[in-house]
Amino acid sequence: MERFFDGPFFVIYSDNFSQWNLSHLREECERHEASGVMAVHWREDVTQSGMVEMDSENRIVRLVEKPKSGEVTSHYVNAGFYYLHPRVLDFIPEGQFCDFAHHVFPKMLEAGEKIYAVKMEDPIIGIDTIEAYERANELASRIAASRPAD
């Protein structure tokens, strides 16, 4: 797989909608010389999401997928937008299913790789149901209507 990546690259989960500027991820990755950067957003109830714990510099220290209410230590969750250095590929097993949040990032953290978080301020909508997809379409229409015509 390494032959396909000669430099850092984005990974974008397709079940989220946002108009957020992804260049924030690239800038943070370069600033920290990190192996990767993950967009995170604040959520009151993190028990159905991937909770992200960070230090004071926004370096990720732990990821907990769908924590129980008594395990909640952060209200920031994985937004599904990443900017990654090609060395992340060393942590992906060949020929096996793996997930970044469940498998790859925990291995990287255990190995001491630097992964940082960028806190999103813009809205993000999960589009994993028809109702959520319709809300995302409504938001996209409002955004498009508010932009000046070219």
Give keywords.
four-stranded mixed β-sheet; Spore Coat Polysaccharide Biosynthesis Protein SpsA, Chain A; 8 strands; 3 helices; 27% strand; alpha+beta
Explain this structure.
This protein is an alpha+beta fold. It has a single domain (2-146), classed as Spore Coat Polysaccharide Biosynthesis Protein SpsA, Chain A (Alpha-Beta Complex), CATH 3.90.550. The protein has three helices and eight strands; from the N terminus they run E-E-H-E-E-E-E-H-E-E-H. It has a four-stranded mixed beta sheet. Strands 2-8 form a two-stranded antiparallel ribbon. The chain has a two-stranded antiparallel ribbon with strand order 4-5. Strand 4 (50-54) and strand 5 (60-65) form a beta hairpin. The chain starts with 8 loop residues before the first strand and ends with a helix. The mean pLDDT is 90.
The CATH level-2 architecture is identified as Alpha-Beta Complex
Order of helices and strands: EEHEEEEHEEH
Name of the CATH superfamily:
Spore Coat Polysaccharide Biosynthesis Protein SpsA, Chain A
Assembly state here? Answer: single chain
Helix/strand/pairing category: alpha+beta
* The number of domains: 1
